[in-house]
Amino acid sequence: MPSMDIVSETNLEEVRNAVDNANREITTRFDFRGVQASFEWKKPVVTVKAEGDFQLKQLCDMLRSQLTKRNVDAKAMSIGNASATGKNWSQQVTFKEGIEQDVAKQVVKLIKNEKLKVQAAIQGEQVRVTGKKRDDLQAVMRLVRESDLEQSFQFTNFKD
What we know:
about 160 residues, alpha+beta, YajQ-like_sf, UPF0234_N, nucleotide-binding, YajQ/Smlt4090-like
């Protein structure tokens, strides 16, 4: 019987590379000349630092574009609240690993509501989907990609 796993993984090495590229981009941008702005990578959290709230938003957009260039889904990124200390602002950006229980339940419910001839079961931080036809599994892939669940999903362990 064909089966596959729906997982949510982030390649942290690519995230580190994107942070390095974003730090290089800061040095070349005119609007950040003479401004103390930086990205700090401490696995799996990126700390964004700048002198103003508006600059923090610009830095988050820069990081998002660098992640896109490195083929890391920006949905995996979770931006925390901005905090000010004196004239410096900082913000934590974390990256989601694994599918949380409530999101996994939403995925299973989404699959069951579509009335496809597959079984979906939650196994830890992943969802295992089995069916009689390969086409049904591909329909599940399409359905999960098109859903708006605020998380990036990958499909692994596809067996025929």
